[in-house]
Amino acid sequence: MYKVRMRFSKTEEAAYLSHLDLMHTMQRVLARAKLPVWYTEGYNQHIYISVALPLSTCYSGEWEFLDFNLMTDKIPPEAVKSLNAVMPKGLRAHEIYPVKKAKPVRDIAYSQYRITYDFDGETPEGFIDAVHELFAREEIVILKKSKRGEKEVNIKEYLRGLEIEDAPDGVRVTVTTAAGNNNLSPEYVTKVIERELPQYSILGADYHRLMVYDADMNQFK
Predict the structure, then answer these.
(1) Taking the alpha carbons of 150, 50, 95, 73 in that order, is the dihedral positive or negative?
(2) CA dihedral 4, 66, 104, 207 (to 10 degrees)
(3) Mind listing the pLDDT tens digit for each residue in 133-185?
């Protein structure tokens, strides 16, 4: 058994796939691409796959990872091309490499997102400056949910940089949030803005993951 990792992107219509739908889709893609993949044993045999840091439904991303096993001791040279030939729109494989040369998933510490806010018409005057001032505060308390329940935390302790700019498709916020055990959804950034700046009415928010980092802010692969 040869463990490998695929880096892929999930955009356009594929952003609306749930995590479970994505898993089923990837299993079918691997089968249709006729790669020498390893199947689980037992009565209900299936292709074993694992997605690191799954995206929420309606999120898109360009730095996503899927681990699976091959029956051979090397990666077929045309593996990426074969996968892309059968991938549905919005899913695309970018590279495949051995897991033994990769970082363990537990090393993921941060995710960088691009949030695009939509308004009714042009960007409200003063919105960008107001967001800058808001996140310049030393403390912004939020109620964060986790498997253990809810607790008040300072969102600034979960952020590693935030930039905001006007763009043709809306206002773009590029933010790096904690991931892994201390995961912070970028939706909390939106919730804070809506709570602290209620005079600005955000019609919609689009979330796109740009990059994943380790604790030293190196690209995770």
Answers:
(1) positive
(2) 150
(3) 999 999 999 999 877 788 999 999 999 999 999 998 899 999 999 998 889 99
User: Which amino acid, residue 182?
Assistant: N
Alpha helices in 38-95, H assignment, sequence order:
79-86
Q: What is the pLDDT of residue 44?
A: 79
**CB under 8 Å, gap of 24 or more: what pairs does 160-168 form?**
160/110, 160/217, 162/135, 162/189, 164/128, 164/131, 164/132, 165/128, 166/123, 166/128, 167/116
Residues sharing a CB contact under 8 Å with residue 83, sequence separation 6 or more, in sequence order: 6, 29, 30, 33, 35, 93
What backbone torsions phi and psi does residue 89 show, to the nearest 5 degrees?
A: -60, 135
Total residues belonging to the chain: 221
- For residue 120, what are the contacts with CB-CB under 8 A and spacing of at least 6? 201, 203
- The SS3 call for residue 72 is coil
Whole-angstrom Cα distance, residue 171 to residue 203? 12
